[in-house]
Amino acid sequence: MTTLRTATLRLFERLRDESGDDEGRFVVAPASMEEAAGLLDVAAAEGLTVRFRGGGTHSGIGNPVTADLVITTSRLSSIIDWSPGDLTAVVGAGLTVDELEATLAEHRQTAVLPETAPGATVGGILSAGMSGYRRLRHGPTRDRVLQVTMATGYGSVVTGGSLVVKSSTGYGVPRLAVGSLGSLGMIGVVALRLLSRPLASATVAVADAPAALSEVYRPIAVLETSEGSFCYLAGTEEQLAAQTAGLAADGVPGLAWPEPIDHPIRLSVRVPPAAVPETVSLVRELDPVRWVAEHGVGVVTVGFEELEDSLFGDLRSWAVSRTGSVVVLEGADFIGDGVDPWGKPPSSIEIQRRIKDSFDPSGICNPGILPGGL
Amino acid sequence: MDPAAELIDLLGASLVHTHPVDRLIYAKDSGVASGDPAIVVLPGSTEEVAAAVRIGVAAGMPIVARGAGTGLAGGAVPPPGSLLLVLTRMNEIHEVDEIGRTAWVGPGLVNLDLSEALADRGLEFAPDPASQQSSTIGGNVATNAGGPHCLAEGTTVAHILGVEMVTADGRIVILGGEAPDEPGYDLRGLIVGSEGTLGIVTRVLVRLIQRPPEIATMLIVFDDIHTAAQTVSDVIAAGLVPAALEMMDQPMIESVENFAHVGLPTDAAAVLIAEVVGTAEGTAVEAGEIREIADRNGAREIRTAATDEERALLWKGRKNAFGSIAQSAPDYYLSDTVVPRTRFVEVLDEIYAIAERDGLRLMNVFHAGDGNFHPLVSFDASEPGMTERVIGASHDMVLAAVAAGGTLSGEHGIGLEKRDLMHLVFTPQDLDAQARIRDAFDPEASLNPGKVLPDGARLSERPGR
């Protein structure tokens, strides 16, 4: 920090977030995208590395990052524009998912963001590329991101996408931003496509999750968990009645999602949907505390108190043999002597590296967090 | 060795064309612009595409990929001296996973052929552009194609899980796949809609959806186009998500009816085609709600297709909209813009005013539920100055859409047609960021140069500023 010039220091001081940081780093909270870009411009010139922070709920993902500076989205947290008739909303990245959903519920709308991520921000969810359980029916989060404004690693404010529900206008900057884990810059403002909340919904306990997936017409989710298997339905009362008629049990009204998995070690096993049943068998053998398998999607989230690295290695090899991956969401350091949270980088690593270098030429944004140390 | 000889060695003389007549056949897509490829080749495999790309790059030739050429924005127009790869031979369905509901297919596979091949397994590919009888999956990927049923299911990008691609330096990479959320950047998502400028897609992993047990298709007739448009807005605002919500205005209805004879009321100001799908119970409720909203807006008549044949007839009318124009004028210019759905009526009025101002014959067919306009001007290009007038008016229609918070293209892409309008919706910094993406994939600018981004989009060659 001693390398900072006086004027820069003044800018940083003005934006300083007094709430501080556990690791004693300098925390700044820009109130506009121009300020965020200004900070990054200075950081790049001074060679200061930067972490971005939203709600901090997904900070365990990726390779460990040491950073001189933390930029938070806490002052970019308002609903900027919500047009219920268009089913679109523009929000600051620092807005929490809970707050957004509570507001949207006033007009019976939803952004279909992850259901169980207390404290998570919209920007954090996008940055980590996380989707909720309703993905089976409504697709991943990234398919509903219409527009993103980010402050890039080279200190520019860039908006990509369009504030309409359908566009084939230029390159998909929002698609690049989603899942980029702050490696290209800071996501500050996002426009989301919204859906109407269903008039009725139900959670039905089922004996055989794969069977429910093939028998029910387009359920919202089919989850197999350490606590049982459930089919989630939504629509009108009449629709639900017809859908549950095909299932053995009656449902309970509402969507009762599993409790969040928040154990010291958290894995996301990603396999082709057809390989989920086999993945479930393998995961059970590892004796996890809790797990949730998303049938038809291909994601199995698993929580452990502890896990041996050899068992972890076996699981990863198996997932890779099925063209999938095992991503450590939390606690990569606690698996044996520590494991690579990503595994082998994808075949497109060279293109990925050129993208990283182009958006973050000084290498200051969450350096090394991505697969292959990007 | 000259590239043509090398390509003949690679593919055989029958699949390499350099004769002026052959080159002319492939000089344009379905838009207005045309180019002139030096060599046209028809590779049959990924390895052949990769080898052809390496030969073209070594010879310093621009490289353009093309499917059926149904694009309207000039995205597949080959620049002079280019190597054109026609991918229509690569039309296999490689493998289908019925449990995972995915299929790997060749880029040259015709869109409709895919859904027809899957029908007996109860699966379908959701994107259904009006061109689906001839357009290819590779072309759909290039333009992020839409279609009526993208209202509920999203455009092509939501239905492409992975691609195998030949890079600008002739290497083969796979982006995405059957397993969700591949670690690293979502390059798959960037490829869809990139109009052949980031790589040449040689295999596509498509997501398939369950065919609905029940389909209800309605034709709703209006005497006033505003109440038709209001009905669309009200349906969307009510939170209903019909599978499709399409609109045609009177001149378009008349043109379609004269051509396809599907029983459309030619005196109506506008018709809506509304389709709801799902369980029998669900569709009954949704169709009832749409009927109620239409009634409230003064619909003159609501017909529900009673049989599959009647339903097919309604869609035949809609999907032949563009083909029907040939009876009334030798040429047409079809534009494609999107506006926020609440601004639909207002922009519609402006579009009519522009056509009237310029004395043009305008007809409209819209993906109304998405706010996606397709104003179509029919004209005779042999009339002096006419083409310029039509393009000028279409340009003003785009401006009207942009002024209402809309964007340049909903599903046709930018290509050559709208490349120089990109500054209307993006700042120089926005365009620079897009150019950075392009440069990361294709540093030498070999792939489909001159498309999508205007010249000088990259603000500085020096990285960093």
Outline of the structure:
Chain A is an alpha+beta fold. Helix content of chain A is 26%, strand content 25%. Chain A has four domains: 2-74 and 357-373, Uridine Diphospho-n-acetylenolpyruvylglucosamine Reductase, domain 2 (2-Layer Sandwich), CATH 3.30.43; 79-196, 2-Layer Sandwich (Uridine Diphospho-n-acetylenolpyruvylglucosamine Reductase, domain 3), CATH 3.30.465; 198-260; 265-330, Alpha-Beta Plaits, CATH 3.30.70.2740.
Supply database-style keywords.
heterodimer; A: 374 residues; alpha+beta; Uridine Diphospho-n-acetylenolpyruvylglucosamine Reductase, domain 2; Uridine Diphospho-n-acetylenolpyruvylglucosamine Reductase, domain 3; 4 domains; eight-stranded antiparallel sheet; five-stranded antiparallel sheet; globular; B: 465 residues; Alpha-Beta Plaits; seven-stranded antiparallel sheet
Rg estimate of chain A, integer Å: 21 Å
* Total beta strand runs of chain B: 20
With strands numbered from the N-terminus, the spatial order across the biggest sheet of chain A is: 14-11-13-12-16-17-15-18
Q: How does CATH name the architecture of the largest domain in chain B? A: 2-Layer Sandwich
Low-confidence stretches of chain B: none
The structural domain count of chain A equals 4
Q: How is the CATH topology of the largest domain in chain B named? A: Uridine Diphospho-n-acetylenolpyruvylglucosamine Reductase, domain 3
Beta-strand share of residues of chain A = 15-25%
Largest sheet of chain B: 7 strands, antiparallel
Total count of helical runs of at least 4 residues of chain A: 11
In the CATH hierarchy, the third-tier topology of the largest domain in chain A is known as Uridine Diphospho-n-acetylenolpyruvylglucosamine Reductase, domain 3
End-to-end distance of chain B, in Å? 41 Å
Number of domains of chain B: 5
Overall structural class of chain B, as computed from helix and strand content, comes to: alpha+beta
Uncertain runs of chain A? none
The total of beta strands of chain A comes to 18
Strand order of the largest sheet of chain B: 15-12-14-13-18-20-16
Q: Mean of residue pLDDT of chain B?
A: 94
